[in-house]
Write a structure and sequence with these properties.
Polyprenyl_synt (chains A, B), about 325 residues, Farnesyl Diphosphate Synthase, 16 helices, 2 domains, homodimer, mainly alpha
C-alpha cells in the first residue's frame, strides 16, 4: 500500500502538468489559477488510495482522480460567487480577480473537463463510473441549494441538517472512494461498502468541524474560533441549541441571533456559554460517534486483507482525531 | 422518413414528461420552468432526424435528444445571467424570477442531467457519443467567452467572428446531428459528414440572422429590425463595415458607435445607409453562400439514398430561405 502523502504528491504533479488551451484566455486562465491555489488534494488522493486498496494500477487512476479535483474546484468557483467570498485559500477568488461572468463560464468549462477526465477509464467500467460521478454531482448541487435555503429558513431540523451535509460534502467523499475501488477492480458490493464508509466518515468529519469551530484550539484548527457563531451559521450545535433552549436561554440565544451590532468576542463567549449549559457539544460528539461507527461497520465488512482494512481504519482515525 | 414537425412533437411530449424531484424546490423548479418556455425544439428534433436518416429507431434517440435540449437550456440559463437579460421567450428569466445564485446552481444541475440523459445509449456507442457531447459543450463555452470578449475588443476580424459563431452556435448543430447519426447506426465517415453539414449550415444560418437583423421584414423576422445596430453588436455586417470604411464614412460610423444619446430610428437609418454605401450586405450574402455550399458539398458526399439527401437539402433550404 502506498502512503497517502505519496499519493497526494502524485496528484500535485498531475495538477501541475494539466494544460489547458491558451485561448480564450478568460475561459482557461481561471481554471489554471484555481487549480494552482493548492489545498491538500485529499479527494483525488483518496481515489488513488481506493484503487490501490484493491490492487489496481494507481497510474491508471490518475486522470479520474484529477476529474474529482477539477470537479471539486468547479464547485468552489461557483460557490464562491454565490457566497460572495473575497478569498479562497488566502488568494483572491476568481469572480473577484476577473468577474462573475468569467467565474460562471470557467466553472462550466471545468465541469465539462471533469467529465472528459473521468472518461479515461476502461470501456468495461465507463458506465458505472460515470453513473456514480453524475449521482455525486447531483448530490453536491442539491446539498449546496439546501444549504443556501437554510440561510432563509427559520427552523432547520437535525435530520434536515444531516441530510444537507451528507449531500454537500459526504457524498463526494463516498463517490470518490467508490470510483477508485471500481477502477481498482473491486467487486460491486465492496465498492458500495467503501462508499458507505466514505459517506458516513464524511458526515462524522463535518460534525467534528462544527465542534472544532467552537471548541477547537485555534492554533491547531487553523480557523478563527467561533466563526460559525459570528455568522449565525446553522451548524449541528446551533440547531440543537435552538431545539433545546427554553425560557430565558431561548430569549438570550434569539437575542444573539438577531442583534445587528455586537462585540465579536462577547457574542462568541455568550453563545458558547449557552451551548455549554445545554450540553450541545455532547450531543454533537455522540452524533459524530454514531456516524464514525457506521463508517467502521461498513469498513469491517469489506472483503479486503486485514492489513488493508487496518490502513483504512488508521486513515479514518487520523481524519477524525484532530486536536481540540 | 418522419417529418420534422412530427419529430418536434415527439420532443415536446418528452419535455412535458420530463420529471425532476420536488426537492430542493429552488434547484429543480427553475429547470422545469425554463424547459416549459417552449421554443421550436429544433435541435433535439434534428438529433431524431439524423437517427431516422440512417434507419435508426427514433424512440431510442429521444433521451439523447432531450440531453441536447436540456444542455441548450442550461447554456441559456447561464447566458441570461451574464447578459443580464430580463426576458427569455417573452417570460421572466430564471435569475430575475428567482436570483442569480439559483440560476447558477440550477444550470449546473441541468448540465449533470444532460450528461445523464446523453448516457441513455447502447454501451457500444457510449464513449463516442459522450466524446462528441463534451467537445460540443467545450466549444459552446469557448464561443460564449469569445463573444463576451468581443464586447471589450476594439478590432475583431472577420475570421475571429466566423470562429466565434462556429463555436457558439454551429458546433452544437453539428454535434447534435453527429450524435443522432451515430445512434442511427451511421458509419463514422458519414456521421462526420453530417457534422460538417451541420456546422457549415449553422454558420450560414447565423450570417443570415445578421443580415435579417438589418434587412429583414420585421413582421416575418419576429424581431426588432436594427436591434444589433442599436446595441453596437459586432455582427458580420458591422465588422465588415469597420474594415471597409474610410474617411468621412469611418468618422460617421465611429460617431454612431460611440454616441451615448441618440434617436433609435435615426441611428438604424444612418448605420444602414453606411452599410448600403459599403455593400456589406453583399459580402455577408457571399459569405453565407460560401458556408451553405460547404454544407451542401458535405451533404452530397454522405452515403445515403438520394431521397434522404433530398430531404436534408430541403431542410437546409427551408432554414436558409427565410423571407427578407
Amino acid at each position: 500500500m502506498k502512503q497517502l502523502s505519496e499519493l497526494q504528491e502524485l496528484i500535485t504533479d498531475a495538477v501541475d502538468n494539466l494544460k489547458f488551451p491558451a485561448q480564450p484566455a478568460d475561459l482557461y486562465e481561471p481554471i489554471s489559477y484555481i487549480l494552482a491555489l493548492g489545498g491538500k488534494r485529499l479527494r483525488p488522493a483518496l481515489l488513488l488510495m481506493a484503487c490501490d486498496l484493491f490492487g489496481g494500477d494507481v497510474e491508471s487512476a490518475i486522470e479520474p482522480a484529477m476529474a474529482i479535483e477539477v470537479f471539486h474546484n468547479f464547485t468552489l468557483m461557483h460557490d464562491d460567487i454565490m457566497d460572495k467570498a473575497p478569498l479562497r485559500r488566502g488568494k483572491v477568488t476568481v469572480h473577484e480577480k476577473w468577474n462573475s461572468n468569467v467565474a460562471i463560464l470557467s466553472g462550466d468549462a471545468m465541469m465539462v473537463e471533469a467529465n472528459r477526465l473521468m472518461m479515461k477509464v476502461d470501456n468495461a467500467i465507463l458506465r458505472p463510473v460515470l453513473d456514480i460521478f453524475n449521482d455525486t454531482a447531483t448530490g453536491v448541487c442539491e446539498g449546496q441549494q439546501i444549504d443556501m435555503t437554510f440561510e432563509q429558513q427559520a427552523n432547520v431540523s437535525i435530520d434536515e441538517y444531516l441530510n444537507m451535509i451528507k449531500l454537500k460534502t459526504a457524498v463526494l467523499l463516498g463517490g470518490t472512494l467508490k470510483i477508485g475501488a471500481i477502477i481498482g477492480g473491486a467487486a460491486t458490493a465492496d465498492a458500495q461498502l467503501l462508499y458507505d464508509f466514505g459517506v458516513n466518515l464524511g458526515i462524522a468529519f463535518q460534525l467534528q468541524d462544527d465542534i472544532l469551530d467552537v471548541y477547537g484550539d485555534p492554533y491547531k484548527f487553523g480557523k478563527q474560533v467561533g466563526g460559525d457563531i459570528l455568522s449565525n451559521k446553522k451548524t449541528y450545535l446551533l440547531i440543537k441549541a435552538i431545539e433545546l433552549a427554553t425560557g430565558s436561554q431561548a430569549d438570550e440565544l434569539n437575542h444573539w441571533l438577531t442583534v445587528q451590532e455586537f462585540d465579536a468576542t462577547e457574542k462568541v463567549k455568550a453563545v458558547t456559554s449557552i451551548y455549554n449549559q445545554l450540553d450541545v457539544r455532547q450531543y454533537a460528539d455522540e452524533a459524530m460517534q454514531t456516524f464514525a461507527e457506521k463508517a467502521f461497520t461498513a469498513l469491517d465488512t469489506i472483503n479486503l486483507p486485514e492489513d488493508r482494512r487496518q490502513y483504512l481504519r488508521q486513515f479514518a482515525d487520523n481524519l477524525l482525531v484532530r486536536e481540540y
